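Just wondering, does anyone understand these tokens?
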Amino acid sequence: MRAFAIDAFGRTPQLQDLPRPEPGPGEVQLQVRAASVNPIDWKVAAGALAAPGAEFPFPLTLGFDFAGRVTAAGDGAAWEVGQEVFGMRLPSAPERSPHGSYAEYMTASAETAAMAARPEGLDAVSAAALPMTGGTALALTRWVDPAEGETLLVVGAAGGVGSYVLQLAAARGAHVIAVAAGDDHAYVRSLGAREAIDHRTTDVAGAVRAARPGGVDAVLDLVDDRETLMTGIAPLVRDGGRLATTVFAADTDALGARGVRAVNFGYRATDRDMAELAGLVTSGALHVAQTTTFPLTAMDEAYTASTTGHVRGKLVVTTG
């Protein structure tokens, strides 16, 4: 089968011909229909998950998000052959299994992935665009808990997580300010942002401070490093407000000293989150992020596009 894999950390991933993985006890084999690209993929390739003493199986196929059909099931597996599912591998999975979703087939189990049934009203490409970014957005929105009328500043609003956070926060009645490139403003407004600031041409901190001298109620920063976050963005949060970062850039002690509840947010996917995402999309309460698709044969193009750091919505790879 074709798979986009690395032979060692630090190596450039390549499309390879690898044996089709067979399911062990508790595992299912999935024929992958679609897989979406996330920054964690190239971070894994660079060795982000490697630790002293840890042994990883190589070749290691990259890819976390998936949508596919169960084609074989091991003893005790929770899914049956023929079922359509979607979900994401857990970050701990690569150390246990080399079979990621950038392939024609992969394996998954309750211990290595969060999965839910893919309803008929949710196509495979859309389903693959949901798990990691949609699940992270669900969990972030629960944590920040924006109330009706509160002001939420979202930095990195046009990306995968931002595309879902904007909708979820707007549905709660929050006044959402999106920080995104100017050519993404129509997109973020379509998802619920009431205001948009172009970080390329505008002093974001100055613009927010001028409009809201008392500060915003909450910030979700999905892109900034520690210096940018702590010196430019964090001071915009009012005393007693909330701040979350997905790139672990917050000095939580410093923010806590002025009553700001802050978190360096890491997401652990659950089956329940996957099912909730499917329900939200099929009910029309949540729209799938704008997707750009690539065939598996052009996986290197999708991968390179992800590493540029400016992606609107989601990049999705299809296998057939």
About this structure: The first strand starts at residue 2 and ends at 6. Residues 131-144 form the longest helix (14 residues). The mean pLDDT is 95. The radius of gyration is 20 Å.
